[in-house]
């Protein structure tokens, strides 16, 4: 659990419940329960029962999930007590936005930003969506970048749609570790939430190294994930 002290008997609780409550209690992030994977005969399938689900185990379970999302530890504890296998969704556009890039470009940019001594927030490694290749890195930044990203990239000389760099803001989400996503594994932290990165960076500080790294990958751009509400 990020920033968490020893919880005593917490080892007996479902891991997703422990982490979901930790995000709400320690980071004051709103969370919402998502779909989950069901194992059985054949490949694991999404709890939504759609055989063509594009985001198995990584999408909301009801249409008004954004309104219900809460940072109240009591509500969060109740949700994961009722559904201990539910994935953890963190709504974007509230406490933070997300800059979403391919894993290779994200790792290159991350190494460069660390050498530059830039302030960095938590970074999620998100498994590939169903039918897609390649994991994604989600950089958590201060909210408000989703509407500004196209103009920010234009000022850096990148035309619209040239880079596989998207912003996720209001109405969207990121899947938080240790949620199990699709057939490819679990969401993980490339940079875990901690006391050192409690204050998130302004996206303007990260855009240039991220755009540069994505530009190096541009000739072989993969298809973009099918998650809705991405601002390109």
Radius of gyration: 17 Å
Order of helices and strands: HEEEHHEEHEEHEEEEEHE
Beta-strand residue percentage: 15-25%
Q: Major beta sheet, specifics? A: 6 strands, antiparallel
Structural class: alpha+beta
Count of β-strands? 13
Strand order of the largest sheet: 12-6-7-5-8-13
N- to C-terminal separation?
A: 32 Å
Q: So how many helices?
A: 6
Give your account of this protein's structure:
The protein has helices at residues 15-27, 65-68, 73-82, 103-116, 149-155, 203-217, and strands spanning 32-33, 37-38, 45-46, 88-91, 97-102, 123-126, 136-141, 166-168, 173-176, 180-181, 185-186, 188-191, 230-231. The chain is α+β, with helices and mostly antiparallel strands and 232 residues long. A six-stranded antiparallel β-sheet has the order 12-6-7-5-8-13. A hairpin with a 3-residue loop joins strand 10 (180-181) and strand 11. The longest helix is centred in the C-terminal third of the chain and has 15 residues, at 203-217. The two termini are 32 Å apart.
């Amino acid at each position: 659990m990020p920033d968490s002290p020893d919880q005593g008997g917490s080892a007996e609780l479902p891991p997703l419940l422990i982490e979901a409550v930790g995000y709400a209690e320690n980071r004051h992030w709103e969370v919402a329960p998502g779909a989950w994977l069901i194992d059985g005969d054949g490949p694991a399938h999404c709890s939504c029962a759609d055989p063509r689900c594009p985001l198995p185990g990584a999408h909301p379970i009801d249409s008004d999930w954004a309104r219900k999302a809460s940072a109240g530890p009591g509500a969060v504890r109740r949700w994961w007590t009722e559904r201990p296998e539910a994935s953890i969704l963190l709504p974007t556009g509230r406490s933070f936005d997300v800059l979403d890039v391919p894993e290779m470009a994200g790792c290159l940019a991350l190494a460069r930003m660390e050498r530059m001594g830039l302030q960095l927030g938590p970074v999620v490694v998100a498994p590939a969506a169903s039918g897609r290749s390649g994991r994604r890195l989600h950089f958590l930044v201060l909210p408000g970048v989703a509407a500004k990203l196209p103009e920010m990239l234009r000022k850096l000389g990148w035309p619209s749609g040239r880079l596989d760099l998207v912003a996720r803001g209001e109405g969207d989400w990121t899947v938080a570790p240790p949620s199990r996503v699709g057939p490819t594994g679990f969401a993980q932290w490339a940079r875990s939430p901690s006391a050192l990165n409690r204050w998130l960076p302004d996206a303007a500080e990260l855009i240039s190294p991220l755009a540069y790294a994505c530009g190096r990958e541009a000739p072989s751009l993969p298809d973009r994930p099918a998650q809705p509400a991405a601002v390109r």
